């Protein structure tokens, strides 16, 4: 399937639909990542804390796909926000991945209680200057901490990866991103199996109309909004199914019907402000 790409500051264009590997057991990470690459994914989202960078790296190496055709993201964990620790953590991730650079490096959580997000951001800027990472961004930043890193450094994150799905649409942050030219990336794009999202009648009706699956409809909704999305599955048929969502185009009315599913209490994961 032809996956659309978006321009991203610092790196080659980012494929809008990628493969996420949160909670993928290290023992199967190489196998499922290889399946994703064979299916046609060219964007992989991992993190130090997932413990599976080595498996992801092995699949990349064995795929034979030219490095420049891949977009690889990893993330700085909360225990390494101090400047020197962050530099060392990135070098260690690259070592485990077997790569000279990642296309995107993210601060995984702002963790406001630690108060080191600005220092960590300065480390990412240094890593970018050194060429170890192409684009730099953040994840799970409350609006205040996002403003603080921009204010302190004048460097705007290229992308912000946040929990985002039809039950939790993050309109406030998306408006801030639009003001600053920050891409929005959705984690938990399918709701992480924590709700009845994929059985919601609005979603299933659209799926039936297109001969598509509910997961594909939700992913097509993300794409229609210009959001980068990184669904996870370790089931071979779903790995393929999710990528094929790139070819599903929703009507404006269908997008609006899913827009109407946003909920006050739709958050499924940790509130970044409380960490
Ligand atoms: P997700 O919304 O992608 O849900 C994954 C789950 O949905 C699967 O385990 C499976 O149960 C189900 N599923 C997947 N495909 C399906 C299909 N076609 N039909 C029916 N059910 C299907 O949740 P996620 O894995 O938490 O998020 C995606 C990626 O985002 C992660 O793998 C990770 O890379 C990233 N992530 C980042 C953070 C962060 O803090 N930055 C947090 C969570 C996840």
Automatic annotation (TrEMBL):
Residues of the NADP-dependent oxidoreductase domain: 23-262
Positions that bind substrate: 108
Active site, renumbered: 50 (proton donor)
Site (Lowers pKa of active site Tyr): 75
Molecular function GO labels: oxidoreductase activity, acting on the CH-OH group of donors, NAD or NADP as acceptor
Alphabetic keyword roster: NADP, Oxidoreductase
Domain of life: Bacteria
UniProt similarity note: Belongs to the aldo/keto reductase family.
The protein's name in its UniProt record: Aldo/keto reductase
Species per Swiss-Prot/TrEMBL record: Brachybacterium paraconglomeratum
């Amino acid at each position: 399937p032809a996956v659309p790409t978006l321009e991203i500051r610092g790196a080659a264009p980012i494929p809008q639909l990628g493969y996420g590997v949160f909670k993928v057991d290290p023992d199967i990470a190489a196998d499922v990542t290889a399946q994703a690459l064979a299916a046609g994914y060219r964007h992989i989202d991992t993190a130090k804390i997932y413990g599976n960078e080595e498996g992801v790296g092995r699949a990349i190496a064995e795929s034979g796909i030219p490095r420049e055709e891949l977009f690889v993201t990893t993330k700085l964990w909360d225990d390494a926000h101090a400047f020197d620790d962050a530099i060392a953590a990135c070098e260690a991730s690259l070592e485990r991945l077997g790569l000279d650079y990642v296309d995107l490096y993210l601060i995984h959580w702002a963790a406001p209680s630690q108060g080191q997000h600005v220092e960590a951001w300065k480390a990412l800027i240094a890593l970018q200057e050194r060429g170890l990472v192409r684009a730099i961004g953040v994840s799970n930043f409350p609006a205040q901490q996002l403003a603080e890193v921009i204010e302190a450094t004048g460097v705007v994150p290229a992308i912000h990866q946040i929990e985002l799905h039809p039950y939790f649409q993050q309109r406030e942050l998306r408006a801030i991103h639009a003001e600053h030219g920050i891409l929005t990336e959705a984690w938990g794009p399918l709701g992480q199996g924590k709700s009845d999202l994929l059985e919601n009648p609005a979603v299933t009706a659209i799926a039936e109309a297109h001969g598509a699956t509910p997961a594909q409809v939700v992913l097509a909704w993300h794409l229609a909004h210009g959001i980068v999305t990184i669904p996870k599955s370790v089931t071979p048929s779903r790995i393929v199914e999710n990528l094929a969502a790139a070819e599903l185009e929703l009507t404006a009315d269908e997008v609006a019907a899913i827009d109407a599913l946003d909920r006050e209490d739709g958050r499924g994961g940790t509130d970044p402000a409380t960490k």
